[in-house]
């Protein structure tokens, strides 16, 4: 699988598991957002130009994902994070004292005013280290990394959820809990 095809397949799977499963005839488990690998494979193969995909291709994309976007457990696959509204429920968890959020310079004034909002996704995305935050924030212009003080956010009523592999999620983070690095 060449790199271009691998990336396209990863994007297709992201779309199917995070955003519009129904448009692909895919029913996801309402709790964890998973489906069987077989169901995903059948839905991919049914797409024009994607008939050549095999289960090994999907496993390769899952394994190679720089940000561990997906996970396969017991022949079921799901996106670990990144969903649009109402797709997956996570158990609340205790975060480290500081989490990072990567964003861009243009979004900063609005974030410092109203805090971090999920925008088009189900949750705000945060990470334990700056690597993930850097990748996320570098996508749309000049990178800015924010430090989130999770204790103060929790005192303000924010619940944090762990999505695995250093990624944390929250419904909202007040501006008062965000500081520029
Ligand atoms: C910003 C991708 C204005 C926020 C990434 C971000 C990540 C505000 C953008 C994962 C705001 C939303 C998630 C406010 C937040 N005013 N802008 N009040 N609050 N924002 O893509 O965190 O590669 O929905 O800073 O790399 O960037 O697709 O969220 O810039 O891992 O796997 O609004 O998705 O992963 O953008 O990215 P997004 P995100 P994949």
TrEMBL record:
Keyword presence, Zinc-finger: no
InterPro entries named among the record's database cross-references: Ptrans_KptA/Tpt1, RNA_2'-PTrans_C, RNA_2'-PTrans_KptA, RNA_2'-PTrans_N
GO molecular function, one term: NAD+ poly-ADP-ribosyltransferase activity
Enzyme class: transferase
Keyword Secreted among UniProt keywords: no
GO biological process: tRNA splicing, via endonucleolytic cleavage and ligation
Pfam families according to UniProt: PTS_2-RNA (PF01885)
Record EC number: 2.7.1.-
Protein keywords: NAD, Transferase
Protein role: Removes the 2'-phosphate from RNA via an intermediate in which the phosphate is ADP-ribosylated by NAD followed by a presumed transesterification to release the RNA and generate ADP-ribose 1''-2''-cyclic phosphate (APPR>P). May function as an ADP-ribosylase.
PANTHER family hit by this protein: PUTATIVE PHOSPHOTRANSFERASE, TRNA 2'-PHOSPHOTRANSFERASE 1
Family: Belongs to the KptA/TPT1 family.
Protein name per UniProt: Probable RNA 2'-phosphotransferase
Organism the protein comes from: Paenibacillus pinisoli
Encoding gene (name): kptA
């Amino acid at each position: 699988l060449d790199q271009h095809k691998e990336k396209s397949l990863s994007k297709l799977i992201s779309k199917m598991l995070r955003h519009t499963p129904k448009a692909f005839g895919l029913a996801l488990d309402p709790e964890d957002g998973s489906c069987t690998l077989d169901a995903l494979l059948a839905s991919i193969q049914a797409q024009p130009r994607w008939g050549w995909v095999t289960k090994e291709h999907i496993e390769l994309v899952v394994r190679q994902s720089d940000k561990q976007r997906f996970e396969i457990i017991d022949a079921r696959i799901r996106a670990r994070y990144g969903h649009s509204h109402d797709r997956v429920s996570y158990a609340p968890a205790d975060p480290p004292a500081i989490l990072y959020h990567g964003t861009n310079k243009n979004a900063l004034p609005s974030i410092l005013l109203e805090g971090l909002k999920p925008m088009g996704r189900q949750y705000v995305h945060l990470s334990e280290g700056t690597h993930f935050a850097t990748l996320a924030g570098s996508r749309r212009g000049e990178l800015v990394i924010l430090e989130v003080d999770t204790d103060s956010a929790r005192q303000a009523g924010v619940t944090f959820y762990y999505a695995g592999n250093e990624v944390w999620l929250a419904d909202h983070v007040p501006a008062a809990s965000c500081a520029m690095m």
